[in-house]
Hints:
Strand order of the largest sheet: 3-8-7-6
Shape: elongated
Largest sheet: 4 strands, mixed
Strand content: 35-45%
Structural class: mainly beta
Distance between the termini: 60 Å
Amino acid sequence: xxxxxxxxxxxxxxxxxxxxxxxxxxxxxxxxxxxxxxxxxxxxxxxxxxxxxxxxxxxxxxxxxxxxxxxxxxxxxxxxxxxxxxxxxxxxxxxxxxx
Length: 99
């Protein structure tokens, strides 16, 4: 039997256990309640390049795709990520032209 100790929702199937909605008070609250304001924070990111492409990975927990924007052209990359239930914001503006 699999269950979260905070809300005691029990299941015998592991996939059902992983798909359970988060509870409101315990350890498996997936999305935290929205705070009054957002704080600017940093995200871990890395990049690699090939002769024709540059790939940039940004790592943010529980990013909101509705509020996240990415703008790119040949010389500039702008990233705006809202994550952690709308409590944190990461902004990055990089000049990517190698000339």
